[in-house]
Protein: Lactate utilization protein A
Amino acid sequence: MRVGLFIPCYIDQFYPRVGIATLRLLEHFHAGDVEFPAAQICCGQPMANAGCVADARPAAERFVATFRPYDYVVAPSGSCVAMVRHHYQGLVADEAARAQVQAKTFELCEFLTDVLQIEPPRGQFPRRVGLHQSCHGLRELRLGSDSELNVAPFNKVQRLLANLEGVEFARLERPDECCGFGGSFAVDEEGVSCMMGRDRIADHERAGAEVLAAGDMSCLMHLDGLIRRERRPLRVLHVAELLAEALGLTISD
Structure:
């Protein structure tokens, strides 16, 4: 099968290791022919979130046209995938093409667990890990259970990491709380955003986390900024980086 690799703007510009780790994982788990189409651009989420629908429309059209030829589209970002899957209605003129691309676009962890249906891999990561669950991944993609719904607990990301030798998961008091980033919210409401981020970091520290991991680099970018500025003893890793490191896969910028 052909897999189109979509790398979000901020990962492409600031965190290329996450994109490379994603590619290495897809190759490691035999996902087929993985391609990075050079024609890809932003998915349009920043514009749509800001209410600039007219500006988001060309990005959505370009995304659908670029990735329509592939069997699957995979991205290391719950928020970008949620944008494509749940918010492209009305942005793409060809509704059949839009629906086709929406149905085959997956976040990395759900692609590994739900599409490839891999067994949780064995590797080594002897650290206590605090998992941050992003709002989009949790509440729109259903990568895990949340406290608003009375459902049996599940967590696809944790399940993916569960067989790593030495790994422990920090037990957070509020495991599904927002980090406070929210794109432009972090700019418009800087004080509130930072307070929310500090609350999340404090929860991880109380639980003894050594590594703070998540499937969305946007959340981690916000939290890592606070951690570095306040010199907190926490390492921040995207799940793709963590898993690649645990499996001994080579990543270079």
